[in-house]
Amino acid sequence: MNILEMIEKKREKQELNQKEIEFFVEGYTNGTIMDYQAAALVMAIFIHGMTKEETTNLTLAMAKSGEILDLSSLHKIIVDKHSTGGVGDKVSLVLLPLVASCGVPVAKMSGRGLGFTGGTVDKLESIPGYQTSIGINNFVQNVEKIGISMISQTLNLAPADKKLYSLRDSIACVESIPLIASSIMSKKIASGAQKIVIDVTVGKGAFMQNMAEAKELAKEMIAIGKLAGRETVCVLTNMDEPLGKAVGNLLEVEEAIKALKGDLSEDLEAVVLELGSYMLKLANVEKNLEKAKELLRRNIENGKAYHKFLELIQNQGGDISYLSDFENFERAKYIEPVYSQQEGYIYEMNAKQIGKLASHLGAGRIRKEDKIDKTVGIVLLKKVGDEVQKGEVLAYVHANHIQHIETAKEELTRIIKMGKEKPKKIATILAIENDGK
Ligand code: URA
Q1: Which positions ≥6 away from 113 have C-beta within 8 Å?
Q2: Which of 37, 50, 53 is nearest to 164 (CA)?
Q3: Ligand 1 atom 8: residue of nearest CA
Q4: pLDDT tens, position by position, 4-19
Q5: CA geometry: angle at 239 spanning 238 and 244, to 5°?
Q6: Is 207:114 a contact under the CB 8 Å cutoff?
Q7: CA 183 to centroid of ligand 1, rounded, Å
């Protein structure tokens, strides 16, 4: 077999067979296929797409490129959750302790943020003492002991995806449906999930810019899940504006704690309850989705969800006394308001632009090696559809460098778009895709 023939085949819109795809994944993972050859093949795939069979073969080959986690010792249905990425997305911090408090075991390996999107691991690490690298035995023991563990990817899971994802990122080939579907599903299969709930974000701050693309991606992942024996549900959610109010690591932890105590913004609550109700359903805890939502609400109101969060943090070395009072939280040196220059209604807050701005303040990383500043970010006081008076505070900028303040304020004033008419509110939950069960 020859990589040049494969590139030529794909360039000419022909289909690659299973053996060829396995040859490519193995060769690229072990370094016998070079970056420039892989880049040429990926670009041909990006332009011409892949058949369903090719996408499934790519997923399974990438899943098998490293270790496969076996969680069968837990003797429970493991339901995993994934998001295609967003801005202000603190859903895992709220949702996972919440579903764990309802009896769904949570064994979650999360990623770090890259570019304008945030990552759960960076948020967890902004809590003093919290260990995200605890080794696989401790990870499984924690799930057995308290029903939840959240760690960074310690295992060598789907290394082919890791390499291919960085390559795609560096050659402008991320937004491809077969490549995203195989990337996500290979990781989920390798991480031992039996059932999978995926938050497919749609809009200005997401890889999928419209519903048609998002539905196609969802259908592709559901089909792969079916072939691999992993029931998959996709919840399509709006990511035109950031989710909730805070964008930035410790600021999002603060918002997540408030949410776990019952103070949730409308959009965050909608996403948490929708994903949570499907997780409870797939785990056979509550088949009726409305009753599942009631159970989730109840566990927020009675404090069980917050208690489970504290158990998770303490069990992994985090300082829960620090979390008991927001006065303890380290703050950025400068916290400055952004005032509205006019009265009217907010009709746009581009999530990607706000994510990039937060990243520029130090909340995210442009390159993998960059260090995160956990205290900086943006807190929105208003959301799309809100009426605003001239001079009202729209948002706060949290920064540690004086030179960032004025530019961030100017940028936010430009990003937050206002008009005279009240805009039509876009629903947070846009659609559900499953395999019809
Ligand atoms: N998230 C992933 O894990 N992979 C992609 O390709 C895109 C989003």
Answers
A1: 119, 122, 359, 364, 365, 372
A2: 37
A3: 84
A4: 999 999 999 999 999 9
A5: 95
A6: no
A7: 6
